[in-house]
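User: Quick sanity check before I run a bigger batch. Here is a single chain. Can you write out its predicted 3D structure?
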Amino acid sequence: MSTRIVNLADLDVQPADPARAPKGPNAALYDRRSAEIASRIGARLLGYNLTVVAPGKRACPFHSHRAEEEMFLILEGGGELRYGEQRHAIRTGDIIACPTGGPETAHQIINTGTTELRYLAISTIAPAEICEYPDSGKFGAFVDNPPDMGNVPARFRHIGRRADACDYWEGE
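Assistant: Done. Predicted structure follows.
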């Protein structure tokens, strides 16, 4: 890395990786293009990215985090923030805090405007994370191991539903 500075104008915004792109009957509701920033500036404990969302779309499902806190800075455009059971209009210059918690802190940014919505997303980075998706009743368990763990798989990702839970002693 030659510098710890990157200009937003120099970022190359890309569509989501096809393996992680929206699927199913509601796929048309989503548009997430982003540029990862954190590794470019040497960040270690915070994640940063520029997110771009087309009019009428959203970047991700309504969700909450149990370990990672997020903040969003609206750079251009406007829309709506779903937060818990409330909805709030958002616009250029707004700063949004999304602390950890359950369904009461679930959040989603929706571009309700007529132009692209661009925002800076900043989050803490936890080695393990649980996300909950209140609209679909799912949860996700995620672990991203550091690269120095030898033969341990680099990632563990599991999406499930609470109804699929097993007893601690089942199969033991």
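The longest strand covers residues 46-53.

User: Great, the batch can go ahead then.
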